[in-house]
Task: inverse folding
């Protein structure tokens, strides 16, 4: 039996429902195994089974061993000695993975004290070093900070510090970057692989994004429906996938919607944003001094012409969403003006505002939160009809909703169902139908495909491209995902700290980024092609 | 360092204050009503006389236990032939408790004071015929009258006309100084008045060293206190229904005597249909006195047929005049034009005989077709609505003044009985001081009001004396409203030692303020001054709005506090004098501003009824309510923590389900019922603790805490159920958090994870509830304090409301509101310890934005 | 939900809490309604000769000090408890929910003002307000309703606001705003239906608490007045008879406990059924 983590024929059932069937994986010391699959495929469950942290009611069979020591179904007293010392784990959600009421140093030191006979001061010293090692310079971010004082990326570094503090032999990372923005994603992944290689630890990297791991995994295993459908050396698997599911995944990841180039209407801008400023008050630093307000959007100009799709990219917190909400007149603006069809949206009221609103509609990110769970699809899709001066009712409304559902690829009968009866992709189609039912000129898409699995994302992008062609729509596409923006927009604006720092035709910006922010974004964006191109020889330092 | 100083100050405040104790046996006497003040010359409150009459204060004459007049500070008296001049010879060698010698000047001062135009003396009208008091020599005075008064010696024996010294007359309300065998020692408002033996008494010294009059308002509490041995004697026991059981108990003696109280169903004779004598007679026929006495008084009480006491030699038994005869009642009603009866109202003051009797009366009236709607009202409202404004149809009340048939002759009296014949009879009686003829006139008087059926005469109120078998010397009857303890004996050796202590002071909320200071100090590194300023600002705003609400609510209360204080027979002038004294006649906004200005300086005003600063009253009560609330809070936490944690950890197992079931039941149990059951089991059944009352902190921490244990438990159990449930669900929520998984992945055991990561976070919602609960516990004590006879803020406010002591009501409510807001603020500050996300920011939810 | 979606726990059969709560509540409500038209004995009829009879066939819970049948009084008193607390909850919902919705929709100063007013009402110990109201207007069931009702207002305002606030940040509400709907209309169409389960749960709990509060007020003589039957007042009247007639203390107390227990069990069960968080897990 080899060293590292060995999972053999692992099956797990929860309350009688099978979630894992016969999973076998090997994580070698110093090697990186990427476990890829869509949500619900059983990736996380595999990691939890390895840690002995399955939820109550789970029954596991098979074998899990670390350096030959069996772990599966061992007594808790044995497992607590292994967890944290021999196996470190990093979870997906850095915002909630840390105890909010204890300092970060304390939380790192706790791992050390749990497994090593050291005093409190020594443990804190070790925590100090570990935090430095994961890139949290104690001079800048002292260990007595609380989690809420850190950014998402910094918190994930703390979580990693907790996982590696005892220099474990195996690190399990469960979607460690999904909640982070694109530039931070790359840094965190680099950090994880670097640490694993430095310590000679095995890294099991769980992800739904094949492109993300293509560049750094030694081996890749693909999971679907609780089983591993294919695994092998990373390059081999990526270049010549055997299983149809893997083939489909690779195809969809690289998928670009077909878009017919359209002439840009010369007749003036459709949407025009000039000098937009949006400020928020900050808490007073002292009794007698007011803090200067926080400028979420700082003098932004933006223009969309008819038939044009414009992308807006930037790291999270840069002000994209605020800008979008302000453009949609969901938030008041402090300065500047938004003009739609050469009419001012900023000052519009009553019927005028309603008429303008129907020209610009929106599709949100979260396919679960976008719908009132108590409403039928018919009522949901018909809601914006309220904006029409003479909204159709009864059969007319029904007919219009059915037509709309048909054009987004749903069946007319779906009008009578409730949102929870649909999958994530179908819901996003309903959201698109709702946006389009009043025949707007501009559709704003707020991270509209970010929460979707890669296959579904490809279908939705196709749909959006198709609709734009058929209906002559313009898109304002807000996303942190450059691949998507690149695929669907003509022009792109890059935002940083409330300002637009770069603007230009999409291809040009991506090919030759000028601003540092843009360069960082482009460099960090996971790309399968780039990854494959970069890996001319096997990256694994371990001799086969 | 700062913390240590603060804690030291706190301890100092909590330290009991030692009190001297008098030698000799000590007897605790229960009384149903607390005296509003201790000056018998300043009002007609019976409770005042009950405590101080003959015990502390003496008059020229005194009423003896058989109702006759005997000498007191006057050894002898004589009347001139024309009846217009009385000469009193005074007892030599008498001194007041403060050493002031008693002489003829004192007599002149006392009587002139009672007669003065601005006098608040309730007997002023009765002695209006006194035209002058003349000092003949140091031991003789002459009283001149404008008309003959055969009953002057009797009047001078009343409590209203006791002798007071000029130097102490003004302060007698709170510190009575008289010539009697007992000196005033201490008054603990809402709890007790303590008298100690006067060693320098001119006559036979008292046989007991100390007498404590303790307020036990509630019938149930009285019963419990007696059984528990907290009280040795109840001269007027408020729970007649328990007498049969007590009579069988050899430890106690039950003495049923007579009072001067004629209990009547009073009728508004001026209001249709009651202006028709046939209707009034129908009422009389409708009432079954026997059933009424059984139902309301458990059989105690003598039926009467007119307004006259059965023990009087001139009594005429007229109970047969209107036998219980519903058919006759219906016939009379039909004759009067009400064949189907009519609807009316029955207003009942808050005394047992009226409240219970009212239900029986209403049911008996209903049997003849008269639908009487019962309205329970407070004494103040009764005085205001019924007595003063005649705004009533029917009411039940006992007239306890001796030989008060003259009220039927008073014009404008609340019966609205205007009979010239009757007035002539009274006039003739006043001209017939002696036999022959007086008895015949008294018979005519009884017959006339019975014939006119002015009221329905129900029964003579019995004096239900209940006392420890070892107690002797108490009066069996009550010819006047007095509890004469001058001949009291007690051979029980060590009776329940009653000590008292006064924690009075201006430190109203000192402990809470100190706590807040402590919290602020502990948080000095965590809380930004901006946040603190914000909290303090909102605290101030809340307080200002709250004072406004309290003031407006309290100022619209009906009832005239002056009338309540002065009692039934107060004159309008006296009322006006009192109103002026308390500034009740200013415009509302002025009163509000004055009140607020006082509040800011820690001055809550002066109580109407007690005539002492409200701040002192409240401070005393705070030493019961605050420890009770804290004790209950500690119990709540001690019970809730293990239960909540266990229920969360074992939530999938039977243990968890059982615990949750128990907390469900705990939530559903009313705390006062729990209190009753606890008393039933632990005090009455097992006799482990006393049934009620509070021995005071100076009797030691142990006994005091023991007295608070059952009330605290009754308060804590329902709250602990709530807290345990909150803790459980918070813990379950926390256990589902991602960081719990992180902790488990570190290799922490389940228990370590629970302790280090789950509990701290689960504590945050628990703190919110705990903050709210402290407020509930302070306020929720109101009912519990009633159940257990504890002299706390709750009892104070209830009493104050019923006495219309507006200033006390305002003070207590504002104080409680202040306490609640303060506790909320402290909890808010504690949040920042529990949750670092709140530190330095202005509020919640901004943290992870 | 970072873990791959867990399969839902198998739906449990109706919990014992739900069954017991529903049964007790049903008994309580039925008793209250039946008591309006029929009681085993006439609860208003006094028969002093039959006073303080122990439990027997004719009087399962005995008779009180005026010879009334205790069971009949309890049945008749149920209506008082039901009516007072139900109307008080109604007052709380009618005034509190619009306030809470308004504060959540408006935010800013409106929210601030409501919060402040809520704090003040919460700062008044309920019993004190009741004491002041009854002292001003005289005791009676109506004043008990008002006093308890006023306390329900901030409770419901808080629940409505607290439940509505996160909804205002939900995307379906943003979508409705993009669809041009005003705050009022969104509150009515989207927010209210989506907080209804929380309101139902809170309503049940406040109903139970209302019964307790009414009993407390009646116990101290501020609630329902005779001849209306009331559980709290029965306890007050029974206090001095506990040695001679313990059933007088025990029977009404048990009635209160069982009614409150039933409703709070029902409320808890409803919370478990309706709470979206629990549902999703």
Result:
């Amino acid at each position: 039996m080899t060293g590292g983590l060995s999972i053999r024929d692992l099956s797990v059932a929860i309350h009688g429902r099978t979630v894992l069937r016969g999973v076998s994986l090997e994580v070698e010391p110093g090697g990186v195994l990427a476990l890829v699959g869509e949500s619900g495929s059983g990736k996380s469950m595999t990691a939890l089974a390895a840690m002995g942290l399955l939820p109550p009611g789970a029954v596991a069979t098979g074998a899990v061993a670390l350096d030959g020591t069996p772990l599966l179904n061992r007594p808790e007293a044995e497992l607590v000695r292994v967890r944290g010392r021999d196996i470190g784990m990093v979870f997906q959600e850095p915002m909630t993975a840390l105890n909010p009421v204890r300092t970060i140093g304390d939380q790192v030191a706790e791992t050390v004290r749990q497994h090593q006979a050291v005093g409190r001061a020594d443990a804190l010293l070790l925590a100090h070093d570990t935090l430095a090692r994961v890139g949290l310079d104690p001079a800048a971010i002292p260990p007595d900070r609380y989690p809420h004082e850190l950014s998402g990326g910094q918190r994930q570094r703390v979580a990693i510090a907790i996982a590696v503090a005892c220099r474990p032999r195996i690190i399990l990372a469960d979607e460690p970057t999904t909640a982070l923005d694109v530039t931070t994603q790359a840094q965190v992944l680099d950090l994880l692989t670097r640490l694993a290689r430095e310590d000679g630890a095995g890294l099991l990297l769980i992800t739904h994004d094949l492109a993300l791991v293509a560049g750094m995994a030694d081996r890749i295993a693909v999971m679907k429906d609780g089983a591993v459908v294919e695994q092998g050396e990373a390059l081999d698997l990526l270049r010549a996938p055997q299983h149809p599911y893997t083939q489909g995944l690779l195809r969809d990841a690289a998928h670009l919607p077909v878009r017919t180039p359209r002439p840009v209407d010369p007749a003036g801008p459709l949407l025009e944003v000039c000098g937009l400023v949006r400020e928020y008050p900050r808490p007073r630093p002292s009794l007698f001094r007011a803090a200067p307000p926080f400028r979420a959007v700082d003098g932004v100009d933006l223009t969309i012409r008819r038939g044009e799709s414009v992308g807006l990219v930037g790291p999270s917190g840069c002000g994209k969403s605020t800008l979008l909400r302000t453009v949609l007149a969901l938030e008041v603006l402090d300065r500047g003006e938004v003009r739609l069809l050469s009419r001012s949206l900023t000052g519009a009221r009553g019927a005028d505002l309603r008429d303008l609103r129907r020209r610009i509609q929106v599709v949100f990110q979260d396919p679960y939160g976008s719908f009132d769970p108590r409403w039928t699809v018919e009522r949901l899709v018909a809601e914006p009809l309220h904006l029409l001066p003479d909204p159709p009712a009864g059969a007319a409304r029904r007919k219009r909703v059915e037509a709309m559902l048909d054009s987004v690829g749903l069946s007319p009968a779906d009008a009578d169902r409730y949102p929870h009866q649909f999958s994530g992709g179908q819901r996003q189609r309903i959201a698109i139908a709702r946006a389009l039912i009043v025949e707007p000129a501009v559709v704003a898409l707020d991270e509209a495909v970010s929460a979707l699995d890669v296959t579904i994302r490809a279908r939705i992008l196709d749909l959006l491209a198709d609709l734009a062609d058929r209906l002559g729509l313009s898109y304002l596409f807000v996303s942190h995902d450059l691949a998507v923006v690149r695929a669907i927009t003509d022009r792109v604006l890059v935002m940083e700290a409330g300002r637009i720092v770069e603007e230009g035709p999409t291809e040009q910006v991506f090919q030759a980024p000028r601003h540092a922010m843009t360069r960082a974004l482009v460099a960090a964006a996971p790309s399968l092609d780039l990854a494959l191109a970069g890996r001319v020889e096997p990256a694994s330092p371990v001799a086969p | 360092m700062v913390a240590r100083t603060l804690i030291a100050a706190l301890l100092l405040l909590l330290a009991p204050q030692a009190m001297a104790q008098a030698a000799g046996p000590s007897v605790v006497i229960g009384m149903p009503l607390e005296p509003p003040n201790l000056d018998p010359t300043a009002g007609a409150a019976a409770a005042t006389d009950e405590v101080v009459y003959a015990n502390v204060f003496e008059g020229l004459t005194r009423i003896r236990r058989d109702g006759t007049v005997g000498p007191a500070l006057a050894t002898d008296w004589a009347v001139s032939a024309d009846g217009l001049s009385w000469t009193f010879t005074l007892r030599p060698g008498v001194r007041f408790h403060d050493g002031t010698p008693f002489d003829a000047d004192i007599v002149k001062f006392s009587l002139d004071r009672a007669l003065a135009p601005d006098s608040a003396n309730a007997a002023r009208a009765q002695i209006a015929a006194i035209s002058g008091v003349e000092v003949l020599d140091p031991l003789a005075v002459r009283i001149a009258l404008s008309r003959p008064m055969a009953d002057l010696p009797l009047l001078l024996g009343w409590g209203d006309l006791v002798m007071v010294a000029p130097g102490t007359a003004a302060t007698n309300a709170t510190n009575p100084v008289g010539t009697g065998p007992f000196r005033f020692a201490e008054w603990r408002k809402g709890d007790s008045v303590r008298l100690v033996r006067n060693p320098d008494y001119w006559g036979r010294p008292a046989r007991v060293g100390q007498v404590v009059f303790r307020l036990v308002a509630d019938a149930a509490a009285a019963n419990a206190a007696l059984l528990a041995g907290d009280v040795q004697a109840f001269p007027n026991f408020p729970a007649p229904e328990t007498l049969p059981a007590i009579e069988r108990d050899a430890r106690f003696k039950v003495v049923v005597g007579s009072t001067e109280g004629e209990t009547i169903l009073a009728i508004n004779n001026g209001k249709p249909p009651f202006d028709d004598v046939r209707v009034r007679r129908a009422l009389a026929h409708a009432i079954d006195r026997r059933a009424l006495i059984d139902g309301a008084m458990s059989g105690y009480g003598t039926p009467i047929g007119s307004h006259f006491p059965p023990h009087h030699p001139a009594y005429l038994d007229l109970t047969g005049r209107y036998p219980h005869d519903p058919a006759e009642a219906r016939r009379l009603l039909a004759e009067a034009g009400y064949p189907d009866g009519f609807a009316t109202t029955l207003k009942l003051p808050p005394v047992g005989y009226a409240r219970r009797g009212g239900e029986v009366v209403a049911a008996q009236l209903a049997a003849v077709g008269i639908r009487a709607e019962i309205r329970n009202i407070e004494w103040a409202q009764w005085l205001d609505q019924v007595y003063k404004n005649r705004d009533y149809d029917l009411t039940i009340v006992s007239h306890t003044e001796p030989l008060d048939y003259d009220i039927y002759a008073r014009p404008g009296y609340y019966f609205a009985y205007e009979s010239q014949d009757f007035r002539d009879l009274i006039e003739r009686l006043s001209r017939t001081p002696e036999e022959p003829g007086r008895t015949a006139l008294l018979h005519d008087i009884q017959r006339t009001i019975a014939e006119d059926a002015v009221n329905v005469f129900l029964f003579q109120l019995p004096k239900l004396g209940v006392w420890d078998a070892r107690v002797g010397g108490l009066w069996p009857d009550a010819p006047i409203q007095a509890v004469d303890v001058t001949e009291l004996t007690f051979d029980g050796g060590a009776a329940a030692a009653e000590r008292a202590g006064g924690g009075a002071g201006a430190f109203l909320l000192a402990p809470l303020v100190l706590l807040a200071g402590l919290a602020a100090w502990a948080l000095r590194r965590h809380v930004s001054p901006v946040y603190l300023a914000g909290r303090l600002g909102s605290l101030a705003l809340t307080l200002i709005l709250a004072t406004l609400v309290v003031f407006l609510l309290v100022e619209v209360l009906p009832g005239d506090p002056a009338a309540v204080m002065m009692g039934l027979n107060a004159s309008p002038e006296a009322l006006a004098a009192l109103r002026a004294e308390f500034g009740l006649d200013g415009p509302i906004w002025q009163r509000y501003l004055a009140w607020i200005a006082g509040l800011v300086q820690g001055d809550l005003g002066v109580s109407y009824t007690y005539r002492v600063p409200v701040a002192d009253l409240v401070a005393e009560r705070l030493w019961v309510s605050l420890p009770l609330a804290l004790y209950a809070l500690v119990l709540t936490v001690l019970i809730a923590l293990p239960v909540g944690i266990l229920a969360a950890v074992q939530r999938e197992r039977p243990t968890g389900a059982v615990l949750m079931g128990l907390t469900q039941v705990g939530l559903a149990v009313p705390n006062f019922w729990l209190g009753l059951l606890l008393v039933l089991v632990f005090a009455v059944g097992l006799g482990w603790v006393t049934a009620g009352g509070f021995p005071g902190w100076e009797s030691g921490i142990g006994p005091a805490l023991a007295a608070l244990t059952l009330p605290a438990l009754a308060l804590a159990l329902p709250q602990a159920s709530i807290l345990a449930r909150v803790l459980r669900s918070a813990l379950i929520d926390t256990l589902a958090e991602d960081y719990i998984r992180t902790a488990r992945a570190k290799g922490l055991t389940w228990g370590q994870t629970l302790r280090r990561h789950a509990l701290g976070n689960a504590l945050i919602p628990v703190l919110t509830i705990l903050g709210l609960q402290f407020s509930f516990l302070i306020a929720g004590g109101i009912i519990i304090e009633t159940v257990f006879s504890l002299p706390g803020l709750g009892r104070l406010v209830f009493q104050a409301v019923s006495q219309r002591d507006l200033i006390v009501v305002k003070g207590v409510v504002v104080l409680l509101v202040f306490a609640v807001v303060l506790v909320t603020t402290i909890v808010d500050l504690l949040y920042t310890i529990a949750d670092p996300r709140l530190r330095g920011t202005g509020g919640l939810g901004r943290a992870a934005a | 939900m970072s873990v791959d979606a867990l399969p839902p726990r198998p739906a449990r059969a109706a919990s014992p809490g739900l069954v017991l709560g529903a049964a007790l509540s049903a008994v309580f409500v039925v008793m209250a309604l039946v008591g309006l038209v029929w009681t085993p004995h006439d609860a208003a009829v006094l028969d002093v000769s039959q006073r303080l009879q122990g439990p027997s066939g004719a009087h399962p819970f005995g008779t009180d000090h005026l010879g009334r049948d205790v069971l009949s009084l309890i049945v008749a008193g149920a209506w008082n408890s039901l009516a007072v607390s139900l109307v008080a909850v109604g007052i709380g919902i009618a005034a509190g929910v619009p306030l809470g919705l308004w504060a959540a929709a408006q935010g800013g100063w409106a929210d601030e003002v409501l919060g402040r007013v809520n704090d003040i009402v919460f700062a008044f110990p309920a019993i004190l307000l009741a004491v002041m109201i009854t002292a001003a207007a005289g005791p009676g069931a109506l004043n008990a309703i008002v006093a308890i009702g006023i306390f329900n207002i901030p409770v419901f305002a808080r629940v409505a606001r607290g439940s509505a606030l996160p909804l205002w940040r939900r995307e379906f509400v943003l979508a409705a705003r993009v669809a041009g709907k005003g705050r009022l209309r969104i509150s009515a169409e989207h927010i209210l239906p989506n907080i209804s389960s929380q309101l139902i749960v809170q309503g049940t709990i406040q109903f139970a608490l209302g019964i307790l509060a009414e009993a407390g007020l009646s116990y101290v003589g501020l609630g329902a007045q005779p001849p209306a039957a009331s559980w709290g007042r029965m306890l007050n009247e029974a206090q001095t008879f506990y040695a001679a007639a313990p059933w007088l203390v025990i029977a009404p107390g048990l009635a209160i406990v069982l009614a409150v227990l039933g409703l709070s069990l029902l409320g808890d069960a409803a919370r478990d059924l309706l709470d979206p968080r629990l549902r999703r897990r």
